[in-house]
Amino acid sequence: MRLSYPTNVKIVKVPCTGRVDILLILKAFESGVDGVYLAGCLEGECHFLRGNLRAKKRVQYVKTLLDEVGLGAGRVEIYNMSSAQGQRFSEVAREMTEKIRALGPSPAKKKVRA
Amino acid sequence: MIVANRKTLEEILTMLKPYKKILLLGCNECVTVCATGGEREVGVLASEIKLSRAKEGQEIEVREQTLERQCDHEYIDQVRPFVGDYEAILSIACGAGIQYVAEKYRNKVVLPGVNTTFLGVTLEQGVWSERCQGCGECVLHLTGGVCPIARCAKSLLNGPCGGSSNGKCEVDKELECAWQLIVDRLKELNQMDKYEEIIPIKDWTTSRDGGPRKRIREDLRL
After folding, report:
1. A15 touches chain B (CB under 8 A)
2. Domain boundaries, chain A
3. B44 vs chain A: nearest CA distance in angstroms?
4. Chain A stretch 22-81, residues whose beta carbon is closer than 8 A to a beta carbon of chain B
5. Distance from CA of A72 to the nearest CA of B (A)
6. What count of other Cβ atoms lies within 10 Å of the Cβ of residue B47?
7. Among candidate residues B142, B149, B151, B152, the one with its CA nearest the CA of residue B189
8. What is the C-alpha separation between B72 and B60, in angstroms, rounded?
9. Which residue of B48, B50, B54 is in closest CB contact with A68?
10. What pLDDT score was predicted for residue A109?
11. How many helices and strands in chain A, by DSSP H and E?
12. For chain B, what is the domain count?
């Protein structure tokens, strides 16, 4: 397909979005990222049955934490796409990049000791 | 288990305002099971505190430590070698743990990161419910195994009251009437004769009314 997506998106591979713990997302923010999104399988299509649904709930919880911290809930999202949707993958990468760019750099950036 | 709720981050940050080096103490017992003060919650809270401070352009050092229990001094002693390096201790154990840590390190400021709420059970993953109030004189043998002290909003010993409607309590339409539960259970057990008996006035001196309680087993003492 030779699709391109913004170079600022760093991919962290996990076996399933269900593997993504709340702390993993928070640690990413501690290390200075401006936003995090999870690219999970389509709802109802999880190989592990409920991994992406668990991830969805965790993302909602992290949103409340980020609001409490003052970074803003908008800095974390979850998107669902199948592994055959390359087009959608690059679309989402652009969409999220634009969204985070509009929010500006994370106020906690480079000031945190990991 | 003892069930607690995390205090809001805002409250915690207000308490932490004067400090730049803190020791965050979790507990591996009850508060781990009710997902409030275990190792994971220590990690999440430490991260929230660091991010909040970073946002304000201020630094804070948070040492994360989770003890096996905070209600036994041998575990609290485990932080003694380095507790002096920190300005304050933020504990997210239950109130008993927080106080015991404060008792053991008298020259340290010890702050509570949680509100301890009740003695309860896990209804399902992520849902906990109150079952016991530690009144010091159990009546479960008379009430079909359902506690009227902890589960009836009025702690009635001879219920239900007029606020019971369709099995629910007038305090909250979602709340089950404890006395409805008691009657249902006694019927199932063919023990309705127990319901006929009037439970006499309770001696509350075994509860909090008698002051803080203490238990001693002489044979176990060293």
Report:
1. no
2. 17-103
3. 6
4. 22-23, 26-27, 29-30, 65, 68-71
5. 11
6. 23
7. B142
8. 29
9. B48
10. 82
11. 3, 2
12. 2
Query: pLDDT value at position A39?
Result: 97
pLDDT tens across B160-211, in order? 999 999 999 999 999 999 999 999 999 999 999 999 999 999 999 999 899 9
Nearest CA in chain B to A33: B51
* Partners of residue B55 in chain A, C-beta under 8 Å: 69-71, 107-108, 111
- Report the C-alpha gap between B92 and B109 in whole angstroms: 14
Q: CB-based contacts of A100: which residues, under 8 Å, 6+ apart?
A: A34, A35, A75
Q: Cα separations (Å) of B25 from B31, B54, B177?
A: 12, 21, 38
pLDDT band at B138 (very low <50, low <70, confident <90, very high): very high
Within 10 A of B79 (CB to CB), how many other CB atoms are there? 20
Ramachandran quadrant class, B35 (left: phi over 0; alpha: psi -120 to 50; beta: rest): left
Q: How many residues are listed for chain B in this entry?
A: 222
Given B85, B118, B151, the domain boundary residue is B118
Hey, are the CB atoms on A26 and B44 less than 8 Å from each other? Answer: yes
| Dist CA A76 CA A62 (whole Å) | 8
What angle (nearest 5°) sits at the alpha carbon of residue B214, between those of residues B211 and B219?
160
How far apart CA A91 and CA B83 sit, in angstroms, is: 51
**ipTM of the shown complex:** 0.90
Whether residue B68 sits in one domain with residue B40: yes
Q: What is the CATH number of the domain that holds B25?
A: 3.40.50.2300
Question: What string of pLDDT tens digits covers the 114 residues of chain A?
Answer: 789 999 999 999 999 999 999 999 999 999 999 999 999 999 999 999 999 999 999 999 999 999 999 999 999 999 999 999 999 999 999 999 999 999 999 999 864 454
CB contacts < 8 A, A to B, total 52
